[in-house]
Amino acid sequence: MRAQTAEPDTYKYDHVRSQTLMSDMSFRPTAPRPGDRLPDFALLTTDGTRLSSETLLGAKPLLLVPGSLTCPMTKASAPMLKRLHAEFGERVQMVLLHVREAHPGEHREQPHSFEEKMEHAKQLQAREAFPFPVLVDDDDGSVHRSLDEKPNSAWLADARGIIIYRALWAGDESGLRQALEAAVRGEKPAKPESTRRLAPMAEGIGVMQETLREAGPRAQRDLIKAAPPMAAMAWIADRFRPLSPRTRGYAAMGTLAALTAGAVAATVRAIRH
Q: Which of 22, 83, 130, 151 could be disulfide-bonded to 102 (CB atoms 3.0-4.6 Å)?
């Protein structure tokens, strides 16, 4: 058990909070934009190879996607990223950047050293079998912080390192696909930014409960405290197995909306009578 510090690290948190979840829903005004240069980096991969932005760029565009072992959005977007790699992998460099844990718990604690972060990255690589490199950010999350600290965003740069597309959620497959199709043609995407939330969030909610179970009971309790509606949707979605994650997520959203509407209607009737 770790000793408590006087000043907790707000980046390497041990308990997810509502403020963090709210900040995940939009880019900061100071975040890199299309037209800006992708931040430089030189990081180790899970197999011990050091890769830098300089070595990855030059011949091909580069797609960089942050993620973590306890992030439901990472788990949800993994199959899609592997599909896109099968289609574009020879023409686009793709890497996943392992960052802080989105929902740490007793079984998957927040890494407080590079060695711990590397171990989590190896577990993520083993679980998802990514066919592309998994980079490990440094202990302070330097690269992640320079990319706005989003848990599972997407950053596509051209061969010169200039950002041509960013997505709040990598799971927006249609947005990412159109960007990759433009990039391999040497063009700028027609839509240089995606802030779509509904479809990616539905997919994430569909696998949220199982991801939090793997992280540990504390991760589940923290979500209930930080975002009760999201926790409720995750629990409901888990009841809709064996439907696909996205279908489970939509079903949970619809169920919670219906229950909420029913409760409001019942309250109104009770007040009137």
A: 151
